[in-house]
Specification:
Blueprint: E1 2-7, E2 11-12, E3 21-28, E4 33-34, E5 40-43, E6 56-59, E7 62-75, E8 79-86, H1 90-101, E9 106-118, E10 124-137, E11 147-151, H2 161-176, H3 199-208, H4 210-223, H5 253-258, E12 269-271, E13 274-277, E14 297-299, E15 302-304, H6 316-321, H7 326-353
């Protein structure tokens, strides 16, 4: 059930003018309001009927506390106008005095939406609804839903019985008419400032229970602020999943194939002796015959040293504060790049120094033969 309220100034009639009635605007047409659960609603003109069963007049939307009945409904340009009679009961007398004093100065409709849609802004637009009740409240959702006139006269005790009789007869009539339930009721109230309770207040409401406690819990839920991740970036962790992935593979296939040897420490150039002419070995030429003669030549192979390396400047803070430590990651990456670069140098020198080459034949270049 939708419950929407509003306030405005009102006029108190002098005693003796008219019976115990109030009048004003129940709902302004095409006016958007936000209810306690955050839903935005507005009523189209003609969405509420002016005939049929008269809505009950309640106290604060509590259907256990009726204080009168709506006796007149008029569809105007401004909105749905109403006239209501306040019963001469203790609850009715109390509410009438509160209205005259200005403590209660607004009304709120209780409507079951039957036909409705949502506009582009997400506002519920009600085109037809069942007006169930009108409540006297203190805080509005629609500022245009107002009590514009209060007319009160002191009644004799014997006269107070007549409104009660009318009320009982109305209640009997209610039992004869089946209530329509076209949609699931949507409950809402005027969205207003709510002071969060103390622990003692909360426990008191829990022990009391009933509709009052349920309304109390709903007010707490409506007043509680929404906190989402965009509001707490300072405490949202951003975990680093380790180890750090490095897709560069530091392989040395050429160097691994030929092996490595340590260079001498001194000098820029060092010699690596190389056998360039080999001896001749063959079968004997016969008894007392000379064997095949040969020669043996060892040449100098001069090797010039080269330095391969690189550097990165790191701040002391970067080394101390990073986790995983940046220094270890940096050295690992440099080792990978060093292995790749030096293997390329070895492969290039091996290719340029080759004196005998053999071209691949056609079957050797066919990937189908590689399996």
């Amino acid at each position: 059930m939708i419950k929407l309220t509003a306030t405005d100034t009102f006029i108190i009639a002098e005693e003796g003018e008219t019976p115990r009635t109030i009048s004003g605007v129940a709902v302004p047409w095409n006016t958007e309001a936000t209810v306690s659960d955050g839903t935005r609603v507005k009523f189209e003109r003609g969405s509420l009927a002016t005939n049929g069963k008269n809505p009950k007049l309640l106290k604060y939307h509590d259907d256990t506390k009726p204080v009168g009945v709506v006796t007149g409904r008029v569809d105007s340009e401004k909105g749905m106008l109403f006239t209501a009679r306040i019963s001469a009961t203790s609850e009715g007398n109390d509410m009438l005095e509160l209205i005259k004093d200005g403590a209660v100065d607004a009304v709120s409709v209780g409507v079951n939406p039957i036909e409705f849609s949502y506009d582009d802004q997400g506002t519920m637009v009600i085109s037809r609804g069942d007006w169930v009740e009108l409540s006297l409240v203190t805080a509005p959702a629609f500022r245009g839903a107002t009590i514009t006139e209060v007319a009160a006269t002191e009644s004799k005790p014997t006269e107070e019985l007549q409104p009660m009789t009318d009320k009982i007869e109305t209640a009997a009539a209610v039992a004869e008419v089946p209530a329509a339930a076209p949609t699931q009721p949507v409950w809402a109230a005027a969205k207003k400032e709510f002071k969060l309770p103390s622990a003692a207040d909360y426990i008191s409401k829990v022990l009391r229970g009933g509709a009052e406690a349920q309304q109390f819990f709903a007010n707490i839920k409506a007043a509680a602020p929404d906190v989402v991740t965009t509001d707490t970036p300072g405490i949202l962790p951003e975990p680093i999943v380790g180890p750090v992935y490095n897709n560069f593979r530091g392989l040395r296939p050429v160097v691994d194939a030929i092996g490595v040897k340590a260079m001498p420490g001194g000098g820029k150039v060092f010699r690596r002796p190389e056998v360039t002419t080999h001896t001749t070995i063959g079968a004997s030429n016969g008894e007392n015959a000379a064997l095949d003669s040969g020669t043996f030549v060892v040449s100098n192979n001069n090797v010039t040293k080269e330095v391969y390396g690189g550097y990165v400047r790191l701040s002391e803070e970067d080394m101390d504060w990073t986790e995983p430590a940046v220094l270890g990651l940096l050295l690992d990456d440099m080792a990978r790049i060093y292995a790749n670069e030096t293997d390329n140098v070895a492969a290039d020198n091996l290719r340029s120094g080759a004196t005998q080459t053999t071209a691949f034949t056609s079957p050797m270049t066919d990937p189908a033969n590689w399996a």
